[in-house]
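Translate sequence into structure tokens.
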Amino acid sequence: MGFLMNRRRLLQASSAALTVGALISKTGRSVAKSSDQVRITVGGGDYGRANIEAYVKPFQEETGIKVIPITDDVNTAQLELMVTTNNITVDVVELGQGTANTLASKGYLQDIDYSIYNNTELNGIIEFAKQPFGVAALIYSYVMVYNTEKFPANKPRPTSWAEFWDVKKFPATRVLMSGQGGSSGPWEEALLADGVAADQLYPMNIDRIFASLDRIKPHIRKWWGSGSEIQQIMHDKVVDIGNSYDGRASLLIDKGGAIEINRNQAKLAWNYWAIPKGSPNAPSAQRFVEFATRAERQAAFARLVSYGPSNRNAYNLLPENVGRKLASHPDYIASSIPMNTQWYAEKGADGRSNTERLMQRWNAWILQ
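Result follows.
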């Protein structure tokens, strides 16, 4: 496989700028009017081509519904404008968890019609991936990664975040993800390192997070900020151990890099297929989302790009060597931790969200 999408971009799905005029007509009327067509954001490059090959083309062949693929992203403000002006020009969008939760809380997303799903397919979809407002299109994870020259398989290695924090037992050069964005950072890892049980992470104690980070801070060489950055750090063997997007590490492993992934206490994240409220092609949009979450289709997609299916039955259709690279493999799910992005979006009495609190706290803490 020759492509892995930048995971930072993936977390911020629907945040890239898109010319509004390309999606909204000058007359203020929806471009897509016919019920026998549907407009879908598919992404660009090889990622977009994978969506087209795995979903768009076979959907058209099965249903006769014409799909108009949109390779640009739709940002939150544009989608809100479409809904509030009843001028919907995109029928299916792929949204990051935070964006989807925010839009759903404002009533801007159509409920998914689960009544049209085959029971076998519906039961195969992981529970956290099925929400009233969307179904997970794919799943990825933040994982611990080792340089195998420093930590060979026959020598002791940290296997938990508590052991990662144990610099005396496991002396090594370390990196961790930056918390500058607020909605993603070493927050859960810090709490796990401080002894919080995985099922007790949320609501997260922000003071405890930073007390834990205080302990590891002197031992972190770099706080990385993007998927390309951590991939380069690992490639150049600048550090011995850190956290990373699983796909970035897998890409290096495929190229013969001295990297190994520890999936214990991996942090799961995902994107949703969602339908803007008021879509003029809602029935066709519902059919596409159902089609794109079938096991067979998700297996086809996973063969093209290394993102985990949300439908567990897809693993019955994947070779073991492919399935083992994916975050949602059944053997990994039990020891992984789904991110609770609803907690990140929650606001306190002062009107600030937990994401904003983490961002502000980080910006002050990192300068200390």
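Note: Strands lie at 37-41, 66-70, 93-96, 130-131, 134-147, 174-177, 220-224, 241-245, 259-274, 337-338.
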